[in-house]
Amino acid sequence: MKAFIPLLCLIALPLWAQTAPDGWAVYPTRKPYAELVDATKAAIKENGLIVVTQAGPTKAAAARGISIPGNRVIGAFNNDYAVRVLETSVHAMIEAPIRFYITENKDGTANLSYKTPSFVFAPYVSEGGQNLMDIAAELDSTFQSIAERAVK
């Protein structure tokens, strides 16, 4: 069974990138996984956000003797956005930081994906109103800039 899981991951990742759920932005690249991780972190900083969190199962799986494709989640936000979101909706802050998702393909290249901030904050519009959606639109633009910079 253990050998089946990495095989399933290798098969599913390219299919997932092509069939991402609604609200997701997906950027396939020719960059190697580690290079895309570094480029994404640099682009986050260049666009005025901070890397708040990072997590991924790849290294922990390797320590257990299981080989899986590179997989990293990077949460990005900043205090200015946190304060502004809180002014509109205390509940919406559960979504911060908003995350980028980097997945390695079978050929060693990687994809950069994320849920758009407007999609992430949409469930809170009844509380946060137009001000929250305006913040989400700003973040949509910032996240797109980050992704475009990271993948180029």
Short structural summary:
The chain has 152 residues and is of the alpha+beta class. Helix content is 51%, strand content 24%.
Helix content range of the residues, please? Answer: 40-55%
Task: Give helix and strand order, one letter per element, not per position.
Answer: HEHEHEHEEHH
- SS-based structural class? alpha+beta
Biggest sheet overview: 5 strands, antiparallel
Beta-strand residue percentage: 15-25%
Instruction: Give the C-alpha Rg.
Output: 16 Å
Q: What is the mean predicted local confidence, pLDDT?
A: 91
- Strand tally is 5
Number of helices: 6
Unreliable runs: 3-17
Physical arrangement of strands within the biggest beta sheet: 1-5-4-3-2
Distance between the termini: 38 Å
Helix and strand topology:
Layout lengths: L3 H15 L5 E9 H14 L3 E6 L2 H6 L7 E7 L1 H10 L9 E7 L4 E7 L1 H5 L3 H27 L1
Antiparallel strand pairs: 1-5, 2-3, 3-4, 4-5
Tell me what the structure shows.
The longest helix has 27 residues, at 125-151. By secondary structure, this protein is an alpha+beta fold. It contains six helices and five strands; from the N terminus they run H-E-H-E-H-E-H-E-E-H-H. Helix 2 packs across helix 6 (125-151). Strand 4 (98-104) and strand 5 (109-115) form a beta hairpin. Strands 1-5-4-3-2 form a five-stranded antiparallel β-sheet, sandwiched between helices. The protein has helices at 4-18, 33-46, 58-63, 79-88, 117-121, 125-151; strands spanning 24-32, 50-55, 71-77, 98-104, 109-115.
